[in-house]
Write a structure and sequence with these properties.
The complex is a heterodimer. Chain A is an all-alpha fold. Chain A is about 75% helix and about 0% strand. Chain A folds into two domains: about 20-80, no CATH class; about 95-340, MetI-like fold (Orthogonal Bundle). Classes of the chains: A mainly alpha, B mainly alpha.
């Protein structure tokens, strides 16, 4: 009974924080719009708009009203899903983004899979054999890879694996004529829908390097968090008890130590999923993939500021929702939250 | 502070001595700083002009890291860029640390509602992807190095504010603060003269790691096109400018990227070293 009340308290707090964050984000984007040099109506109407068109836009956006009314109008438009209009495609930013979103999600999903399959086993072994050669190598690799610029690693691997060794395609999402008809916008999923095995393999082949670049960079964080967490758990008394009762090393690690150190990994991977969408800006452009990142990059290059700001709003909102989902997942996974979070503040 | 002075015995000292690896990191950081301060004075003027006849030459004795598409020496452009990159990063970290310190002090000293409001504001800042928000600000203000620096300064403070506010709350519970209160020291003076100076050393630890991270983000923003613009020797802008030549002249892309990576890693490791020396129980990560 109390448990249920605590759950709903926790959920309410988190929902409140998510709503607050979205409001803060919208306010920041409004501030960005106001910081843009020049006449906002002129900018929104496009470079070759006539005086009449500019006035129409001024009217529509309520730019003659006091700033506070403009702000409220802006929040209202965001709530209705109007994230601005691109000056290049002349489409609402949100509809532009919804076209490329599945492609980015595909990239982030595969990157996350590679990320976890890379970081969790290495983290476990490094913690278990801490101080040994394997641990040292992993830690050096984590520090080195963690300091590399994403776009640079992408460029170098693209050159070495794509142009020199030709093990992966240099860029794009599918070979010429190989792509399955677009249904969802995510090439692998489209191939599955079409039941086209060759197209699926081809899409995967194009996806592997961009996803691996994102995964490598982010796995260093998961590795560090898991290793540190496990080292702490392995020192605790209950592990000695598990040892004393005669459990094997692998059972001790996987059944007892790991579940007690996975919580930070869960939180971190949720935050990472959001951050990966941000890093996709850097990786998608290098590999000429469709996606939110590439859309944003092109918008910057074409000075399409409204499209950039709409994308900022969108990515920020996705990250907020991701954080909320992680909090809820954590609640389901870790019973300790019940006591720790009740009435308490975030650590 | 107290831990170090309490451990004046010889064996403890030996434990605090720098390992060869630590020394190497510190030397590397010093070399980078020296390059940033003095490097541009030694750089030949030819790195700012183009010499098409000499373009995209591979590394040689004359051009250690080769030349770029304009025939400019890649090595000396990196040295010249070190100043832009490091100076900008120092500026960004200093600016957001100042914002963070101010917010933390006001939150720790102020009434409960103000503390709550500022910490929720910090929560918002922490929950948002800072690079994307910085990208938005820089794009809105008009892409330039200055825009990128301002954008990173206004998005970087939340971690500092959160960390410092926690430490200051802890410091406020120590006995010397209670003593000062008994003596009738005003709240403002108590915070600025007693609590804040005794909480700041945590920022010194954070500082080096922050520089490393800022170098990365700055290069990324420049690469996207909202930071320093291509003729600038800033490293991210250099990579953006040389992108198209990666398959014909790898050195134009690999070298500036390696510079970013080495700088970021060196400052990150320096942060770890300072942290371990402050609190040897951590034993490094």
């Amino acid at each position: 009974m109390t448990g249920l009340r605590v759950y709903s308290w926790f959920l309410l707090r988190r929902l409140g924080l998510a709503a607050l964050t979205l409001w803060g984000l919208a306010s920041l984007v409004f501030l960005m719009v106001k910081l843009m040099p020049g006449d906002e109506a002129q900018m929104a109407a496009g470079a070759d708009a006539s005086a009449v068109q500019i006035e129409a836009v001024r009217e529509r956006l309520g730019l003659d009203a006091p700033v506070i009314m403009q702000y409220l109008g802006f929040l209202g438009r965001i709530l209705r899903g109007d994230f601005g209009t691109s000056n290049v495609t002349l489409q609402p930013v949100l509809s532009d983004l919804s076209v490329v979103l599945p492609s980015t999600f595909e990239l982030v999903f595969f990157a996350m899979v590679i990320n976890l399959t890379l970081a969790i086993p290495t983290g476990i072994v490094a913690a278990y054999r801490s101080g040994r050669t394997f641990d040292t190598i992993c830690r050096i690799a984590a520090v080195t890879l963690g300091g590399m610029p994403a776009f640079w690693l992408a460029l170098v691997l693209q050159y070495v694996l794509g142009s020199l060794w030709r093990v992966v395609p240099i860029s794009g999402q599918a070979s010429f004529g190989m792509a399955a008809p677009v249904v969802t916008g995510a090439p692998t999923l489209d191939a599955v829908v079409a039941g086209n095995g060759a197209a699926f393999i081809d899409a995967l082949h194009h996806l592997i390097l961009p996803a691996a670049v994102l995964a490598i960079l982010f796995s260093t964080q998961i590795f560090r968090a898991l290793r540190t967490g496990l080292l702490g758990v392995l020192k605790s008394d209950f592990i000695m008890a598990v040892r004393a009762k005669g459990a094997s090393s692998s059972r001790m690690l996987v059944r007892h130590a790991l579940p007690n150190s996975l919580n930070p990994v869960l939180t971190l991977s949720g935050t990472q999923a959001g951050a990966m969408i941000g890093s996709a800006v850097l990786v998608e452009t290098v590999f000429a993939r469709k996606g939110i990142g590439a859309y944003m990059f092109n918008a910057v290059a074409q000075k399409d500021t409204f499209a950039v700001l709409g994308s900022v709003m969108f990515i920020g909102a996705v990250v907020c929702i991701m954080n909320l989902l992680v909090d809820i997942a954590q609640l389901l996974v870790d019973p300790r939250i019940r006591s720790a979070q009740f009435g308490g503040s975030r650590a | 502070m107290t831990t170090v002075s309490a451990m004046s015995g010889a064996p403890r000292r030996r434990r605090l001595a720098l390992s060869p690896f630590d020394t190497a990191v510190i030397v590397l950081v010093c070399v980078l700083l020296l390059a940033a301060v003095f490097g541009p004075f030694f750089a030949p003027d030819s790195i700012y002009t183009s010499d098409i006849a000499n373009s995209l030459m591979p590394p040689s004795a004359a051009n250690w890291f080769g030349t770029d598409d304009q025939g400019r020496d890649v090595f000396w452009r990196l040295v010249a860029g070190a100043r832009t990159t490091l100076l900008s990063s120092f500026l960004v970290v200093t600016l957001y640390s100042l914002i963070g310190v101010t917010i933390a002090t006001v939150a720790a000293a102020g009434p409960r509602w103000l503390d709550e409001a500022l910490m929720r504001l910090t929560d918002i800042g922490l929950a948002l992807p800072s690079m994307i928000v910085a990208l938005g600000f820089a794009a809105a203000m008009g892409p330039s190095l200055k825009s990128a620096i301002i954008a990173m300064a206004i998005t970087g403070w939340p971690t500092t504010a959160r960390l410092l506010r926690g430490i200051m709350r802890q410091t406020m519970e120590s006995q010397f603060v209670a003593g000062a209160q008994v003596l009738g020291v005003s709240r403002w003076r108590l915070m600025t003269k007693h609590v804040l100076p005794n909480s700041l050393d945590v920022l010194i630890v954070k500082w080096a790691g922050d520089i490393g991270n800022t170098v990365l983000v700055l290069a990324s923003l420049s690469f996207i096109g909202v930071g320093a613009q291509p003729p600038s020797p800033e490293w991210g802008a250099t990579i953006a400018g040389a992108r198209g030549y990666v398959s014909t002249a790898w050195w134009t892309v690999v070298m500036p990227g390696a510079a970013v990576a080495i700088t970021s890693i060196a400052f990150g490791l320096l942060g770890d070293i300072i942290q371990v020396r402050r609190d040897p129980s951590l034993g490094g990560n």
